[in-house]
Amino acid sequence: MDRDAESSYFLERSRLQDLLDELVHRRYELLGPRLDQEAIVYDRIDRVEDLPCGWTDEQRPGHYRLKRRDDEALFGYVVGPHSWKKYLFPPLVNVMTSRKDSDGWTMQDEPIASSRMALIGVRACELAAIAIQDRVFMSDIYVDPIYAARRKDLFLVAVNCTQAASTCFCTSMGTGPRCSAGFDLALTELPSGFVLEVGSPNGQNVLNALGLHLASEAQCQSAESHRQVAVTQITKKVETSGIRDKLLSRLEHPRWESVAERCLSCANCTLVCPTCFCSSVDEVTDLTNDEIHRQRRWDSCFNFDFSHISGGPIRNQTRSRYRQWLTHKLASWIDQFGTSGCVGCGRCITWCPVGIDLTEEIAAICSDTDPS
Q1: How far apart are CA 182 and CA 145, in angstroms?
Q2: Which of 64, 75, 124, 169 is geometrically suited to a Cys-Cys bond with 236, CB 3.0 to 4.6 A?
Q3: How many angstroms separate the CA atoms of 313 and 213, rounded?
Q4: Across 133-162, average pLDDT
């Protein structure tokens, strides 16, 4: 018997609800994929019936469509417009409130409440993205208390990819398509059920409560065959060797101007990216001016005023904003955090309205011949 068969278990399709019920019993809020507005998004789920049964997604640069599958797979899609960062790094959050009363103004930090969330259907690239944001928000002495509180009691049910989109390039970034670390439980979907792997003591505790049997060697081999399909479907590539130095040494490459002529500077790529973390802080008053909320909200380096310092923006051209995004994501991010900021999920390609392909831009800029 191979190593997988010695450490994997089998969860029948009819018992997936048992897993969800066990997590609810442990006071986790279930968050997972479901259909909404003609896309597969992440939202609150309660039952297996909430999952996108029999649906898949068709993706290419600037294109996303839902399609019916010829089977009833529950996780037979790739990734949609949402990433899990919206639950750990919320798009909008109050950080302080000031109130005016007869004695003047009082300021109070917003209480930070921890939450018990179980994320269902996390892909390998998304596990890598969560690990990257852990490094950004919880490393060394620089800890974001809001992120840390929401991350503390997180339970991750990962799902190995058994298909890939034309925009995926996780194999180049070393992040997938198979889940290797960072999960509590990982599932590989087969027609009759799921081959299940344990990745943490919390995952083992949940597994013990379900009383599952070891997966057979045939089931493990079938799971490996299904996972291999995703590997063979990935055609986009990024040459990561020396990418930092190549990008930073070609800041005047004419390709930056070429891509700027197509880029709308709409910020879609940063909003769907599972690792981007730009934010701004605003003071928002009520109608009476007696209460002021200090709010942190998602922002983007593509927004004109994001680099506004002392009278004007530093990056006042689309060319410089696109260059900032790409060189930070794949070059200076390595200097800051010791890893690339890209996990190869392909969302930035799919959800770019004009279909700009990051992999093509990198190849052009990092080519051996530098026309600058």
Answers
A1: 21
A2: 169
A3: 61
A4: 94
